């Protein structure tokens, strides 16, 4: 992810974090360099905890985190290079958008905080002159306010926790374009998400985290292949379950089959080939095919598979 | 988009910005209105003493300062505002928007402390001084109220700022501390009295008011220095918590 010889923006080694007996992060090691990196994982996977440790908001229980070769806990000055949009929705509710973003600019010691705040607000396509307090803002608008305050210091590292949640489709598209542009400019943009299709559009490297463990990493295409190559479970509806199950087992595409409540549940490692051949087998068995449905296409199943193969 | 940031260090502009955020955060209408009523109680009591035409006005005025102002009004008002200063932003997660900035952590502690003092003085100290002044007990009583009240505000604000950051239910813990330590143990134990903000600030107030030393009084110099030491130590501990603790 980083060019040879150069230091990564983020270097994590054997990082673990636990709260009492609950292990939130377990033995994570990875590097992140410039460009967009997506942190993909289901809710409760440990993404927000990881972000908090990366930004220095929380201490690692074990292991090390280096941001720009420094410990983020030890050096507050480092925060001038980091912009974070946390997941929590709460803002300074009585402030207006310009007050809130200007606050960030002032505390970043930016010489012209008004201008910097205006630019950041315009970047996220909100109205800097909006007189309403932030308490009146919708979830999508709050997401953009959080993004504006993260952008205001023009940081080298952006850490954005579920930044697309609550945005309408058009705003999602514009925000993804913004991330890609920032990545192309050499910024390090780390974005968390639990939506696979969303991450696909970042065109980025992905870290898959679930149950506090890093279960896969690489470019999106490699992760996608990994997910497609896993065994799939499908449910097949037919009026001749016994005959069809026997016929499917002879194709070599099915690694397991069982009949349950009149349905056939099959396991295959090549879902597209199975879908192509099932109709042929049904015709040969003189069975009527009523349904072919994937049982594990949801992301949770993908994550469970990735956890199992580690 | 690029706006070059200056090297991070202390500037009055950033300190004032932090202070304003805390003032705005703690001075909610409900808190200010509710606690101003308590403050106005001091003015009403002072007026009642004045209208009583009693020959014992100086003692009654001192009781107003001691038993109402320094025992109840100022500690409670300081507890509510100071514990909210860092406590509210830590609880709702907005502390992140101050903590993740290139600022020395002591500036956050000092900003929260300053905001609390800024709000407590007009809500509690000023009415107490007005009440003492109009009671007819003499200007020295009002002077004692001002000196003791200001010092108590400073010390309690520093202590309760840290408490709000470190513990949940800071109001309950703060009330327990006020009732058990400040108003019970310190009143009966001479040793404990030396480590009580109430006893120390009351001793200073009595000295300024030229009122006979109250029970368990300490020397006025101790009464002046101890709360200031408590303030410095409490702010240092709050800074340390911001530096080393986990930010929610």
Which pair of chains forms the biggest interface, and how many residues does each contribute? Answer: A-B, 40 and 33 residues
- Strand count of chain A: 13
Number of domains of chain A: 2
Question: How many domain modules of chain B?
Answer: 1
Q: Could you give the count of β-strands of chain B?
A: 0
Cα-atom Rg of chain B, whole angstroms?
A: 19 Å
How many strands, what sense, and barrel or not for the largest sheet of chain A? Answer: 6 strands, mixed
Percent in helix of chain A: 25-40%
**Elements of chain B, N to C (H/E):** HHHHHHHHHH
* CATH level-four homologous superfamily name of the largest domain in chain A: P-loop containing nucleotide triphosphate hydrolases
Observed structural traits:
heterodimer, A: 310 residues, alpha/beta, Rossmann fold, Alpha-Beta Plaits, 2 domains, six-stranded mixed beta sheet, four-stranded antiparallel beta sheet, B: 248 residues, mainly alpha, globular
Task: Write the SSE topology.
The complex is a heterodimer of chains A (310) and B (248).
Chain A: E1 10-19, E2 22-32, E3 35-40, H1 47-54, E4 62-67, E5 82-85, H2 97-107, H3 113-123, H4 139-151, E6 157-160, H5 169-184, E7 188-193, H6 196-202, E8 205-210, E9 213-219, H7 220-229, E10 232-238, H8 241-249, E11 254-260, E12 263-268, H9 271-285, E13 289-294, H10 299-309
Chain B: H1 12-26, H2 29-51, H3 57-92, H4 96-99, H5 105-134, H6 139-166, H7 170-188, H8 190-193, H9 197-209, H10 220-244
Helix pairs in contact in B: 1-3, 1-5, 2-3, 2-5, 3-5, 3-6, 3-7, 3-9, 5-6, 5-10, 6-7, 6-9, 6-10, 9-10
Outline:
Chain A is of the alpha/beta class.
Task: Report on the architecture of this protein.
The complex is a heterodimer of chains A (310) and B (248). Helix content of chain A is 36%, strand content 28%. Chain A is of the alpha/beta class and 310 residues long. The longest helix of chain A is centred in the middle third of the chain and has 16 residues, at 169-184. Chain A folds into 2 domains: 10-223, Rossmann fold; 230-309, Alpha-Beta Plaits (2-Layer Sandwich). In chain A, the strands form 3 sheets. In chain A, strands 5-6-7-3-8-9 form a 6-stranded mixed beta sheet, sandwiched between helices. A 4-stranded antiparallel beta sheet of chain A has the order 11-12-10-13, with helices on one face. Chain A is built from 10 helices and 13 strands. With 248 residues, chain B is mostly helical. Chain B has one domain. In chain B, helix 6 (139-166) packs across helix 7 (170-188). The longest helix of chain B is centred in the N-terminal third of the chain and has 36 residues, at 57-92. The radius of gyration of chain B is 19 Å and the shape is globular. The A-B interface holds A 52, 55-59, 76-80, 82, 84, 86, 88, 90-92, 94-95, 100, 103-112, 115-116, 119-120, 123, 149, 151, 153-154 and B 1-8, 11, 13-14, 17-18, 21, 24-25, 92-94, 96-105, 244, 246-248.
